[in-house]
Amino acid sequence: MVSWEGLSDHDNYHGCCRLLGRFKVNYQLSELVNVEIYSDWIRLVAEFTTKSLQSWQWASGGVYYLLGLWSRLVTSVPYLKGDTPSLLDETVPKIIEGFIKSRFDSVQAGFPDELSENPLDNVEVLQDHLESFPYLCRFQYQSSSLYIIKVMEPLLQTYTEWARLQVPGDSNELCIVEGQLAWIVHIIAAILKIRQSTGCSADSQELIDAELAARVLQLINVTDNGLHSQRYTEISKQRLDRATITFFQHFRKSYVGDQAMLSSKLYSRLSELLGLQDHLVLLNVIVGKIATNLKCYTERCSSTYIIQCVQNEEVIEHTLSLFFELASGYMTGKLLLKLDTVKFIIGHHTREHFPFLEEYRCSRSRTTFYYTLGWLIFMEDSPVKFKAAMDPVLQVVISLESTPDSAFRTDAVKFALVGLMRDLRGIAMATNSRRTYGLLFDWLYPSHMPLLLKGIAHWTDTPEVTTPLLKFMAEFVFNKAQRLTFDSSSPNGILLFREVSKILVAYGTRILSLPIAADIYNSRYKGMWVSLTILSRALSGNYVNFGVFELYGDRALADALDIALKMALSIPLADILAFRKLMRAYFGLVEVLFNNHMVFILNLDPSTFMHIVGSLESGLKCLDASVSSQCASAVDNLATYYFNHITVGDAPPSAAAMNLARHIADCPSLFPEILRSLFEIVLFEDCGNQWSLSRPMLSLVLISEQ
């Protein structure tokens, strides 16, 4: 008789689970089975695990450790030496059954406590539950798959019968069935995610995968038909659809696309069961489900249904994530372009066909949607097809451009402008080559750039509008993968920077004149850090010869630097260091200025110069390695300039060098203080960027030899 005394205390129970979870880490299975009491121990652990699964409301936190132990035990079986039985073939099936039954019981009982979150709604918790369980299923894959199919088929039959009903019956019963199906689909998805199996050949493993996948695909054929097509606002339906998207994501990685085995036995079995012969037919099913989700999960939300609204957004985000995964794969992207559904989406991405584009709550998802469309559009590399695909966007642009100034401050214009900026940002993100970027640049410049200035001028006090607009501009001027490479005779780089300057000046002058609001980050700092990011990307993009501006008396560069400096100086250093994104944008710009525009820095008045250099010393002490590296680079450039132009420089020194000498004369301890801080950091702190921090130390030592 075993006593479970003390395990009713939650801390004791959790500690016991963690202890068991460490067993296989410290002992090999071959060592464990040779222990005299192994058979008693393994049965007791199995009994303890079963009881924990049954107590799902109380003991869910410990299940992660217990399943981890069992998964490590079963994956060690192929390496087991000797004839001593492991007894896992007796215990593991009971644990599989206990786990599935406990998930079904949790759906049946519900989560009445408001503090108890349904695992189906939390990706992290769901991942914890299903991280180890598939290894148990793959241990005796044939028998465990038969059990899963046996459990799923009655639910699938019931759900199919519900679809045929004209009048809804007991909705609570239907919600329970959907919840249980969601768990089964998540479990099958997790099994397909891993390909490791013991005691099962690769071919037979694929045939079993096909049997499980076929049941999920049968379910998907039903989920959007009949009565179920009216239930998109129901949380249980949304959980089931999120599970099917997860299934498609894991199935794709194993059996569709770039890494999939073209000669897979799985498709021959799916062809027999469902008539799905190959990748392309299955991709059509996946894209059909994607299109259905994007069309149907857009019910307008009232305050009463706020939870359903959040779930709606999560389904759309999850669906778009799958769509992007498919589009961004080279092989799957090419296959998608053959499908009529995808051709329709590329040509008809309007709110009439995809109502979520009109839903303001889903406006963030628009960027992902158009990022995916951009991938597909640019994969064909056809200017004619690009212009045709951009026609719906062009209609929005023309509508906004024709709106008179007196009517530009309406909600309709606001939502249209926000949506347009998010759409364009997604398309800009998808341009990864000189040719594709050129298509977008020629489409936008010069005819439609004035719309951005018009938006800034009318909506400066509304961050919901200015932030997407500025973020689009930050993406548009970002020279990733050398996509902003214009011909040697082209003025486009200079013309683009002039537009950047106009937008920064328009935004900066207006935002600095507005009173400070209570939510200072969202109303002020967020737009400012995006503006600083725009300028730093434009200055470091290597597509503009900035000497041209001064040579021809063009104030674009001077005005952009001036307004950026004013915005940066309007923010207290403590606030810069407190907000991570603001800090990265500020020090990113400072590094670029000290690297490429040293004369501008040295011509500043003494107090401004000292403030900026003083901020570098604070940045060096920052825990963010990227920020401290940027500050170290800026200090290195400044000290190197001093050494080259003053310490060993030719006489007479330049005006900028004389300014630097005056700044240092006013504060002779400036360089020694920074050098001391660097030595303290390198010697006494555990920093991962010592090489970056050590670079300015040489130049500082050389100018302070004494």
TrEMBL record:
Any one GO molecular function term = nuclear export signal receptor activity
- Ranges for domain Exportin-7/Ran-binding protein 17 TPR repeats come to 110-364
Q: Which GO terms describe its cellular component?
A: cytoplasm; nuclear pore
- Report the InterPro entries cross-referenced here: ARM-type_fold, TPR_XPO7/RBP17, XPO4/7-like
What keywords is this UniProt entry annotated with?
Answer: Cytoplasm, Nucleus, Protein transport, Transport
Determine the domain of life of the protein's source: Eukaryota
Query: What GO terms describe the biological role, i.e. biological process, of this protein?
Result: protein export from nucleus
Q: Does the keyword Nucleus apply?
A: yes
Question: Which cell locations does it reside in?
Answer: Cytoplasm; Nucleus
PANTHER family, per database record: EXPORTIN 4,7-RELATED (PTHR12596), EXPORTIN-7 ISOFORM X1 (PTHR12596:SF2)
Similarity-based family: Belongs to the exportin family.
Q: What is this protein called?
A: Exportin-7/Ran-binding protein 17 TPR repeats domain-containing protein
Originating species? Colocasia esculenta
